[in-house]
């Protein structure tokens, strides 16, 4: 999701630059800048939600270690793999 917002912000920035070069109406440029600002504001929020989800998953996996049958389940292994993939990026 974060990558989508980053890409959308990049495309929106290019759109604003293109409108400015074309001499578009100032109102149109202003509105497109607002859209760009909205995209840029979503990036930190998305990052924060991802960080919170990672923390929650880490805590949950730690709590599963107390129960070996659950802690070694396929679901727990998959969750650890996903977590490793997210934290290595």
UniProtKB/TrEMBL annotation:
Give the Gene Ontology MF terms in alphabetical order.
beta-tubulin binding
Kindly give the InterPro entries that the UniProt entry links to this protein. Answer: TBCA (IPR004226), TBCA_sf (IPR036126)
Q: What is one term from the GO cellular component aspect held by the record? A: cytosol
Q: Does the keyword Repeat apply?
A: no
Location(s), subcellular: Cytoplasm, Cytoskeleton
- Major localisation: cytoplasm
Q: Which UniProt keywords apply?
A: Chaperone, Cytoplasm, Cytoskeleton, Microtubule
Task: Report which superkingdom the organism of origin falls in.
Answer: Eukaryota
An example GO BP is: tubulin complex assembly
Q: Pfam families, from UniProt?
A: TBCA (PF02970)
Question: What Gene3D superfamilies does the record tag this protein with?
Answer: 1.20.58.90
How does the annotation summarize its subunit structure? Supercomplex made of cofactors A to E. Cofactors A and D function by capturing and stabilizing tubulin in a quasi-native conformation. Cofactor E binds to the cofactor D-tubulin complex; interaction with cofactor C then causes the release of tubulin polypeptides that are committed to the native state.
Q: Which family does it belong to?
A: Belongs to the TBCA family.
Q: What is this protein called?
A: Tubulin-specific chaperone A
């Amino acid at each position: 999701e974060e990558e989508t917002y980053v890409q959308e912000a990049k495309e929106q920035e290019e759109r604003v630059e293109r409108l400015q070069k074309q001499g578009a109406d100032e109102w149109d440029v202003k509105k497109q800048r607002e859209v760009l600002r909205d995209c840029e504001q979503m990036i930190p929020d998305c990052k924060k939600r991802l960080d919170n989800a990672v923390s929650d998953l880490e805590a949950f996996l730690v709590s599963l270690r107390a129960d070996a049958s659950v802690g070694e389940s396929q679901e727990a292994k998959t969750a650890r793999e996903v977590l490793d993939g997210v934290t290595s990026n």
